[in-house]
Amino acid sequence: MRDRAILVTGGGSGIGRAVVLACAARGARVGVLDIDALSASSVADEALAHGAADALAINCDVSDERAVADAFAACENQLGSPAAVHANAGIEINHPAHLMPYEDWQRVLRINLSGLFLTCREAVRAMLRTGHGGSIVCTSSPSAFTGFSGGGNAAYGSSKGGVSALVRSLAIDYARHGIRVNAVVPGAIDTPMLLTGLAVAEQAAAHDAILRDAREQIPLGRLGRPEEIAAAVTWLLSDDASYVTGSHLVCDGGLTARSANTF
Fold first, then answer.
1. What average pLDDT is seen over the chain?
2. 66-84 pLDDT, tens per residue?
3. Of the residues 102, 156, 174, 243, which is catalytic?
4. Looking only at Cα atoms, what is the longest distance across the chain?
């Protein structure tokens, strides 16, 4: 990874931030793309302190086609053509389907699926121009494969199911060009996204409840750490995974392998 340009969307927090810092520690040139400009800038500074050869923060809404193209152009201008891209930006809005406003449905699909498509499209275009291939890793979810017992997951699950289908399609289409496309599938990871939609006053109690549930429901007995997902992502981004494409690397503590059936 040393001196290679690696771009991460949603790089300002959570899993994206952990991936940026893991790549920085390997001497990469990192592009930190996030809708929160201050968070992106802060993580870019952290990346330099962690050993990045260079770091660039870019305010980018992945659902905006022009913004994604401009962000890739800015990264290519300063960091060089991307050798690897982690398409990670996403949101979660949960409602039972009959209560979900159409605007919320559209927003989840626009960011999680269309935004990821725009990111992958720019990555593929850049990699085709260089002719050197590359690696793209998309963030999917267990909800692409199984329903969440808590319910209300129609929009998020649909978006992530689309992500996983897109990964398989792109992997087949661009394998002959040396472009690998894979997905990481994080389970319950201890990031702010776990508490999405809760008032600040409710978050501490909710976090404690989530930790209790994790001990009971996740075979490894705990939430995952962002750094653990970053280790999986950086492996997929690297040449160590040179024969891996169209795959899903599940990192969920055994959650999706466990059946709730007792009969």
1. 92
2. 999 999 999 999 999 999 9
3. 156
4. 59
Number of alpha carbons in the 13 Å side-chain half-sphere of residue 148:
19
Residue 36 φ/ψ, nearest 5 degrees: -95, 105
156 catalytic, yes or no? Answer: yes
Q: How many CB atoms lie within 10 A of CB 20?
A: 34
Residue 191 has φ and ψ, to the nearest 5°, of -130, 165
Tracing tokens 């600040």 back to the chain, one arrives at 200
Task: Tell me the residue type at 74.
Answer: A
Joined tokens for residue 158: 């649909």
For residue 115 the two structure tokens come to: 């935004």
Closest to 76 (Cα-Cα) out of 101, 59, 54: 54
The average pLDDT across 39-59 equals 98
Reading across the β-sheet that carries 179-186, which strands appear in turn?
54-59, 29-34, 5-9, 82-87, 134-139, 179-186, 248-251
Distance between CA 117 and CA 121 in Å, rounded? 6
Domains, in order of start, for the chain = 5-189+225-251 (3.40.50.720), 193-223 (no CATH)
Vertex 128 angle, CA 124 and 132, to 5°? 110
pLDDT tens, residue by residue, 223-244: 999 999 999 999 999 999 999 9
Q: Cβ of 89: how many Cβ atoms within 10 Å?
A: 25
Q: What does pTM read for this prediction?
A: 0.93
Cα–Cα distance for residue pair 160/155, rounded to 1 Å: 9
Q: DSSP secondary-structure letter at 192?
A: G
